[in-house]
Design a protein that fits this description.
It is a single chain. The chain has 119 residues and is mainly alpha-helical. It has one domain (2-118). 97% of the residues lie in helices and 0% in strands. Helix 1 packs across helix 2. The radius of gyration is 46 Å and the shape is rod-shaped. The mean pLDDT is 92.
Length: 119
C-alpha cells in the first residue's frame, strides 16, 4: 500500500507540474498576444493620426485657396463696376455734349437691332 500511496503522490506531483507548465505557457502566450495587439493598436493609432494631419493640412490649403479666390472675385467685381461706372460717365458726357448725334446713334442702333431680331 505504501507503493500505491507513493505512486499516487508522484502522479499528483506530475499532474501539478503539468498544470503549472500549462498555466505558465498560457500566461506567456497571452502576454505575447497582448504585446502584438498593443503594437498593432499603436501602429493603427499612428496611422490614423498621420492621415488626420494630412487631411487637416489639405483642408487648410483648400480653405486658403477658396479665400484667395473669393478675394480675387471681389477685386474683379469691383474693377468691373468701376469700368462700367466710367463708361456710363463717358456716355452721359457724350450725350450732354452732342445730344443730336446721340439720338441719331440710338435710332440707328434701334433700327439695326430690330432688323436683326426680326429674322
Amino acid at each position: 500500500m505504501a507503493d500505491v500511496a507513493g505512486g499516487q503522490s508522484k502522479a499528483n506531483d506530475r499532474i501539478d507540474q503539468s498544470a503549472e507548465r500549462v498555466k505558465h505557457a498560457t500566461s506567456e502566450a497571452v502576454a505575447r498576444t497582448k504585446q502584438v495587439v498593443n503594437d498593432t493598436a499603436d501602429k493603427v493609432e499612428a496611422g490614423v493620426h498621420h492621415a488626420t494631419d494630412k487631411a487637416a493640412g489639405a483642408a487648410h490649403r483648400a480653405n486658403d485657396k477658396a479665400a484667395d479666390l473669393a478675394d480675387r472675385g471681389r477685386e474683379l467685381r469691383d474693377e468691373t463696376m468701376d469700368k462700367a461706372d466710367a463708361w456710363m460717365t463717358q456716355a452721359r458726357a457724350y450725350v450732354r455734349e452732342k445730344p443730336l448725334q446721340s439720338i441719331a446713334i440710338a435710332v440707328g442702333a434701334g433700327w439695326l437691332l430690330g432688323r436683326i431680331l426680326r429674322r
